[in-house]
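Q: Structure tokens for this one, please.
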Amino acid sequence: MLGDRVSRSGILMGFLSQRQAFGGVEVKLASSAPFIRMWADCDGVLLVPGDSFATDWACLQFIRLDEEQPLAGYLEEVGRFNRARIPSEAPTGWSSWYQFLESITEVDLFANVDWAEAHRKQIPLDVIQLDDGFEAEVGDWFSTKAGFPSGLDGVSRRILRAGFVPGLWLAPFVARPGARILTDHPGWILRNRMGAPVNAGFIWDAFTRALDVTHPQVVEHVVRLVTTAVGEWGFEYIKLDFLYAGALRGKRHDPRRTRAQALRSILEHIRKAAGDGTTLVGCGCPLGSGVGIFDAMRIGADVAVRWNPAYKGHETLLRRERDMPSVRNAIHNIISRAPLHRRWWINDPDCLILRQPQALRTPGHDPDPFGGGAEIASTAETLSRMRSRLTPDETISLATIIALSGGSLFVSDHLPDLSAERLDWLARLLPPLPAGLRAMDWFDHTQPSILVLPLEGAAGKWDLVALFNWAETANEGSLNLNLLKRQAEDFRAVSFWGGKYLPLESPNLVSSAIPPHGVRLFSVRPAGPGPGWIGDTLHISQGLAVSTVEVHARSLAVGLDLGRRASGTAFLELPSLPRRSTLDGVAIESVQVGLNVHAMQLQFDGGARLEVEW
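A: Here is the predicted structure, written as tokens:
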């Protein structure tokens, strides 16, 4: 994107696909001869006499920066061209990684399965995903550690028996030095022109190796791995990580393929092996290569147990790093890549981390490199796992932005250890929202801070507005509500996390003293002429819990349906003081909190009927 903030116009440039070659856009404006150039990297592939090479289609579009969805036309055309896979619902679940890392055992896993099964009415999750740590060595996926005596097939059966979708993490294109796959098959390793192994990245405290995905035996190995994971082990949700390794520069077995062709080809083999009924999640993947292959895609940096990136607990030299694991970097990517959601796939914003900071450290255990200072358990019994450094405001920010993304919603804490308060935060995010946020100030700031999500349902039409503070000090946030284009003079607002009705004396929504790295989330509705729902703390949507609304001359009936056990405050606009309020026929109290606005405490299991007479 190249745009003019004064004229509010811009030029969008990109490619329709990433099957043939990786490409880019080069812009040089500070020159006597400014230029814009698009290029396709053909990687110096071999063309024999009679061969030809066609690049992917390039796109150029003029746009208005202030349109509600200025990137939609291009993104939707890419989705159509590549036959994007977009599931009807975003998955929810639990992942082992950010709590147990590589120390996971089936005892730890089953403890969380048991808890999730017992608390399904309050926290309804879909998937239980075993992440890294089960394999004997990274690359040796067919052998498991001693901590998994049941085997991967036994793990999936246990998850399925509890009523969840079994999920498994794999990294099929990388291996650590010393893995048997490398010693047994040295010809599978991607090498540079000097014959040395290509560096696939410093992962797991080692410089890893990449497999040459154009080698027929590597293709056969990867297909067998995916077929086994789905058909024999019984996993229905497969997350594939470090996929960039399939596109690294090197001397390939097939010198006629570009890096993009090599990666796309192996991904197509994987999709065919997994079958259409298996949910595939990409991670660490060049984005364009995965459209039409993956049902969900990680779209940013890993989260972590701290706000800023760090390595072994040290932040100072890494604060400016934008790709390393941290909550700051994860949130930035969630916002900037929000337009991809439900156009290319379901966005995967990475996991929620909800646990409170722990005061104690485990002696003798260094901070881990992934979380930037978290501990790894010495044994499963000690449960001295990754220690959170997040403030409550930072935790709420992560939860809010992940939920507003409308994408996958996974939690990665030891569920039995979560406090009642943190479990309530999680419950109020379920089920996921049906659409994703947009940043109002996306082109004006490198870190957008005004996020909006229009919603519609039985409770009418309204907007969720999040005012975010990236700063290290408390700041004010504001939005002129006329920019929402709701054609109203007066508005009603409810603060979700604060649980309060906010009277608005002008069309400006202002929130003072937003804490460092904090967020304020509001539902905003035009003030209506009649009785109605104006917000709640039951669900982050502040209205989608409402399934039906019946308005009569002197009464209002509201049907509620969340599919889970719920409790919270409802805010209703009524023409006069209520004389009788009931929930499923049981009398409840109401409190006037503003002019014609009344709050009621609700608690129900799955669904309920609220009736108010005045």
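A few notes: Residues 359-385 have pLDDT under 50 and may be disordered. The two ends are 55 Å apart (CA to CA).
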